């Protein structure tokens, strides 16, 4: 059986990442500090935020890994620490444009191996919408990655309403990734920010979009949550119970489980038992392969958890390994559109 394998969840950063701390001042800008020919440290406020290898900026290295690990296409997205929602909108927009241009250039150089998601400055809706428009209609990217909160505001805040309205109207796929996690002051040890904080943060974002009525208001929004939705899939029964026992708090016609079925999720939960639960809860058409390449918590090889879920039908396996992501991102439609545009630009 010929199966297209699409890794929906991978991160990338330009090798020539500018030093915005030097340009604009301030300690919160991420800075890429090269430590050797094949690696660097992402520094924030003079402290090492994360060590990275050249896999994170070199498309040729990525393709070597993809060929070795059986991945046909990677979906490239920015590293969340670069969202910079805290910055003035025009500065965050400059940061976003550099990354979006780099991702678009990488996709255009290797169109059969990569698809791309952009980033937008969510702290200002007009600026975010403007850059989303540029990403989709000028750069030919395939969607937008956003964080789970913006400066402590959950995604149901009224200031984001117009952004989500436009994303639905323009049929823009959204990938929601945790960042600036809740309770991080209680998680300095054991790397709990990654293993406990991020899944909890994702659950809060998903629940906020549902309970507030955002998903009822925009039923055609295309949203995928990272890391298998974090702890959200397992909290739905408790959210439903809250909806039933607190009728005075209801803002939706139906309980949360009704709207949860509108969401999509990557498969990065490491355990076939969890995959089977998510299939029962949401359907196999709502799950995509995703590895978190090239970071330490990634799944090796990409799709391992799906390969180890032995009781899948051929159709389910084929869909979750690649078909669902291709449909979510409209890959064929956008590739055809890019080909037509290229043909027109050459006067053909």
Name the CATH superfamily assignment.
Answer: Metal-dependent hydrolases
The CATH topology is: TIM Barrel
The SSE string, one letter per element, is: EHEEEHEHEHEEEHEHHEHHEHEHHH
Distance between the termini: 37 Å
The major pleated sheet works out as:
8 strands, parallel
How many β-strands, per DSSP? 13
Our count of domains comes out at 1
Give the fraction of residues assigned to helices: 40-55%
Question: What overall geometry do the principal axes of the alpha carbons give?
Answer: globular
- Over the alpha carbons, how many angstroms does the gyration radius reach? 20 Å
- Going by helix content, strand content and strand pairing, the class is alpha/beta
Number of helices: 13
Beta fraction = 15-25%
Named CATH architecture: Alpha-Beta Barrel
Pfam families: Amidohydro_2
Protein name: 2-amino-3-carboxymuconate-6-semialdehyde decarboxylase
InterPro entries: ACMSD (IPR032465), Amidohydro-rel (IPR006680), Metal_Hydrolase (IPR032466)
GO molecular function, one term: hydrolase activity
Key features?
disordered C terminus, globular, TIM Barrel, 17% strand, three-stranded antiparallel beta sheet, 348 residues, single chain, alpha/beta, eight-stranded parallel beta sheet
Descriptive notes:
The chain is an alpha/beta fold and 348 residues long. It has a single domain (6-11, 83-345), classed as TIM Barrel, CATH 3.20.20.140. It has 13 helices and 13 strands. The chain has an 8-stranded parallel sheet with strand order 1-5-6-7-10-11-12-13. Strand 2 and strand 3 form a beta hairpin. Its EC number is 4.1.1.45. Keywords: Decarboxylase, Lyase, Metal-binding, Zinc. Belongs to the metallo-dependent hydrolases superfamily. ACMSD family. Pathway: Secondary metabolite metabolism; quinolate metabolism.
